[in-house]
Description:
The protein is 50% helix and 12% strand. The chain has 13 helices and nine strands. The chain has helices at residues 26-35, 47-61, 73-77, 90-97, 103-106, 121-133, 146-152, 163-173, 188-216, 221-228, 236-246, 256-273, 278-292; strands at residues 16-20, 39-43, 67-69, 82-85, 112-115, 137-140, 143-144, 155-159, 177-182. A six-stranded parallel β-sheet has the order 3-2-1-4-5-6. A three-stranded mixed β-sheet has the order 7-8-9. Strand 1, helix 1 (26-35) and strand 2 form a beta-alpha-beta unit. Helix 1 (26-35) runs parallel beside helix 2 (47-61). The radius of gyration is 20 Å and the shape is globular.
Amino acid sequence: MPNINTKTYPSTPSRKVAFLGLGVMGYPMAGHLALAGHQVTVYNRTAAKAKAWCQEFARTSGQNQAIKQATTPRLAVQQAELVFCCVGNDDDLRSVTLGADGAFAGMATGAVFVDHTTASASVARELYGAAKNLGLQFVDAPVSGGQAGAQNGLLTVMCGGDQAAFDTAQPVAMAFSKAFTLLGQSGSGQLAKMVNQICIAGLVQGLSEAIAFGQQAGLDMLQVLEVIGKGAAQSWQLDNRGKTMIADQFDFGFAVDWMRKDLGLVLDEAKRNGARLPVTALVDQFYADVQHMGGQRWDTSSLIKRLR
């Protein structure tokens, strides 16, 4: 199970919250809510993981009575003021929100649903409308920072929705965030996450080509990255992935399969809004090549494998 590193949590009143989805990101995110003193009920499709989460955080948070597991999303959200969610894709999100056992069927009037799934802007708007019709509030809030950001409680969260819902969620969500920002109306969070992934795709391909070029030229690339990292070429990717790319290490981090899912969302949205994304489309195909090489679960920095 993911490790979690404690932090200095914001001083906020204890709230009754639910967390749906205890994957690589959701498990530590929900853990930070418990460690910050909130009363957390969790739901996970694989019940054994929810049970393990409860055992771990009832012990580490000292809140045995406040940590609970539910067998359906509807049961998990009953009495919750805030519901956080982090699942895989649009269909997974609909499955935990809609229907007789979905969260929307169990939430109290006025409660806020905060979705951290990287999904489409269209499903965010769809669920915002469905929630509003039921007297509920919905915020799309995809995250950036990866597994390490979730474990350290230092995620960057991009939000779309109404100001009142955002204001309710923000103080509590700072338990696992370093920034939690409202960027506009429903769907804006998902669109901002797409901008984030466009930037990353181009940066990783550029860094891959730079390292491969330097190695082919016989340079000491560890020394080169140390030098150029002090200048205009500096980036998070260079600082955090450069050395591991040189060492041909990719068994960690944000998986290629996940990036391809995200870039699929980007390219679909670009078809709708008319944006031209030639580099992003090309890098998406390069990631398909990495998948065909068996790198579905490799870190996204594995783009350099195509060049060796």
